[in-house]
Amino acid sequence: MASRHEEKFLIDYTQYSIVRARAEQAMMTDPNSETGCYLITSVYYDDHKDTALDEKLDGIRVHTKYRVRTYDCNPSPVNLERKVKRGIMTEKFSTRVDPNTLSMFSDPEADLSLLTGRARVMATEMRSKGLFPTVTVRYRRDAFVYPAQDVRLTFDTNVEALPPDFSHLFDDSECGIPALPRNVVVMEVKYGEYLPVFVRKIASCNANQLSVSKYALCREVLR
């Protein structure tokens, strides 16, 4: 996947309401959801040294995270993803995996020859790094798009942390621990080569750009 820019902001609910209303007037809702709103649940991996967590907290410019993700707790598809971040530039590599194979990606004894394609490649990488599930991150996302320039404007609310149990990917009945105050929203602006001026105006709300990591926030509240 080609690199794209990713800018993140913490905004309050009033700012969210204003910016979201602008986006509704000028952008499309995410075509993958009838309403543009959906639940995202991800189980993140790290090693026994907490390398991914420490690289984020230390502000290391280039860092990598691995995760498995579902949307609205739907087992089809389950995405296995590797996300590489270089400053505000990101690359995401993703492949769909069978829910029944999830344990293989952290089991040092699993027969990886049973996997195929990119799933086997990523499983091999994860084994070599000694990765295992460390936290479940859940939140509700409102998403708007401007397809002409590969632009996405998203708002993540109710960010919660849960134990790293794969069952949470498919069942939203258990409440997590809030990782942010309920009136705080994570706004993300994602785009390819450049961001159209009108989208920048839509997202403008006097918020400072921050390096916000839902993974790091959720790891911290579980400690």
Helical content stands at 10-25%
Examine the coordinates and then state which fold CATH places here, giving the name of the CATH topology: mRNA Triphosphatase Cet1, Chain A
- CATH class, please? Alpha Beta
Strand order of the largest sheet: 1-6-5-4-3-7-8-10
Instruction: Determine Rg (CA atoms, Å).
Output: 17 Å
CATH architecture: Alpha-Beta Barrel
Number of domains in the coordinates? 1
Question: Can you walk through the features of this model?
Answer:
It is a single chain. By secondary structure, the chain is an alpha+beta fold. The chain has a single domain, classed as Alpha-Beta Barrel (mRNA Triphosphatase Cet1, Chain A), CATH 3.20.100. It is 22% helix and 39% strand. It has an 8-stranded antiparallel beta barrel, surrounded by 4 helices. Strand 7 (132-146) and strand 8 form a beta hairpin. The longest helix has 14 residues, at 13-26. The chain is globular and about 50 Å long. The mean pLDDT is 93.
Strand and helix layout:
Blueprint (H helix, E strand, L loop, with lengths): L3 E9 H14 L1 E2 L7 E10 L4 H7 L4 E10 L6 E9 L2 E9 L19 H13 L2 E15 L4 E12 L14 E2 L5 E8 L5 H7 L5 E2 L3 H9 L1
Antiparallel strand pairs: 1-6, 1-10, 1-11, 2-7, 3-4, 3-7, 4-5, 5-6, 7-8, 8-9, 8-10
Task: Offer a few descriptive terms.
single chain, alpha+beta, 11 strands, 8-stranded antiparallel barrel, 223 residues, 5 helices, mRNA Triphosphatase Cet1, Chain A
Structure summarized in a few sentences:
The protein has 223 residues and is of the alpha+beta class. The protein has helices spanning 13-26, 51-57, 117-129, 197-203, 214-222, and strands at residues 4-12, 28-29, 37-46, 62-71, 78-86, 89-97, 132-146, 151-162, 177-178, 184-191, 209-210. It is globular.
